[in-house]
Design brief:
With 112 residues, this protein is mainly alpha-helical.
Amino acid sequence: MSMAAMKGDTAFQARSLFRSLVRQSRQFAAYNFREYAKRRTRDAFREHRGEVEERRIQELIQKGLKELQMMKRQTVVSQFYQLDRLVVEGGKTGKQSGSEGGIARVKDTGWD
């Protein structure tokens, strides 16, 4: 196999791994875990963007595959503990108030 073909295959593996990690990070039930996983994936790939040594690149890909397997297990567990959506996520949550059936946030303002 030529060196160019091996390099192209490695690049394909890295892109595929990146897409899989980002796709899997979207499966977390909790917003903070989702955002952390996406940010950590992006940061790790950016950190190692300039790697040229083939052996080191393969080690990083193997490490990424282990991370992907771990993330798959964590997303399954996280879906057992789903919480209400946060305000930053959008969607309608909160206490019912008003006559039109819309949901509005009701904030406790202190001791009454």
